[in-house]
Amino acid sequence: MAQQLINDTFLRALLREPTDYTPIWLMRQAGRYLPEYNATRGRAGSFLGLAQNPDYATEVTLQPLERYPLDAAILFSDILTIPDAMGLGLEFATGEGPKFARPVRSEDDVARLAVPDIDATLRYVTDAVSQIRRALTDAQGRQRVPLIGFSGSPWTLACYMVEGRGSDDFRTVKSMLYGRPDLMHRILDVNARAVTAYLNAQIEAGAQAVMIFDTWGGTLADGTYQRFSLHYIEQIVSQLKREHDGRRVPVITFTKGGGLWLEEIAASGVDAVGLDWTVNLGRARERVAGKVALQGNIDPSVLFAPPSTIRIEARAVLDSYGNYPGHVFNLGHGISQFTPPEHVAELVDEVHRHSRAIRATGQTQVPGAVSKT
Prior knowledge:
Layout: E1 4-5, H1 9-14, H2 35-44, H3 47-51, H4 54-67, E2 73-74, H5 81-85, E3 90-93, E4 97-100, H6 107-112, H7 118-121, H8 123-135, E5 142-143, E6 147-152, H9 154-163, H10 171-179, H11 181-205, E7 209-214, H12 224-238, E8 243-244, E9 247-248, E10 251-255, H13 262-266, E11 272-274, H14 281-288, E12 293-295, H15 307-321, E13 327-328, H16 341-359
Parallel strand pairs: 1-5, 2-6, 6-7, 7-10, 10-11, 11-12, 12-13
Antiparallel strand pairs: 3-4, 8-9
């Protein structure tokens, strides 16, 4: 499946190579803020009907690329595909979000958990990856932009598996963590092995970078985070295929609320660390000292502001990082379903425009450089 990439800026930025401008993609860039997405979802009949059909998944993955000159596509799927494949009975109730019919609460529940057969249970995901790659490729065999695959982290998956749905306080899963850490480690070990197999299957199917979403890692206490989340992310990263089709396959991890542990996350073996909007990007770059790329980190709520403010805030993020390699522009979390689509166009345009202007200053981009300010 090796193909020429027309635009490989995203991959080069993840590998901390100099680029002509700062690449941008958006978490949840294919989603409910786009009217075309909502139309496709209507045809699919439900969210699961959309996510589990490779044709629909391909269609919605490409929709934001038709609107905006984004620098990467991301597979349209859901982080809860793995626990669903474990037989927990995933449902999406209107107005309630995801929930599981059979949450993991008892010793017997935990004992029954097993790594699913990815090819048998999640083939619709790998088929979608392959189909999206083909759709991104023109008649001359040139691919528009790279494709990102992803999974939830073991801890984030465990939060949904034990709680049975989203939670405000994570009382049930944290009660298990502190009261029966042996059960929690068993869940996390199974999840880590499943995520490893799942991401490797996506890479084999054509994903050119992969991302681990540790959405709820920031709910953990210092010390607990390292044992119950980061340890298992490290386990996954150490076992991922890092070369495919003659290319390096970069790995990104994103822990919402994880700025406290930036240095430790950067040392986990990943190529890039995603940051939420609470982290100062310039200081973060200095803290990692060129060891990894950084992704982020504008506040998604900025997209509700007037276009002139969106452009000001985008420039502030770019100026904070400075004229150094290793930056992928993104939101500090997923885009809101209420975001005006035209505001996204303003953001993408300003990121490309201003980052090119920064490069034009003539300052040499030095991989690994740390500013003295």
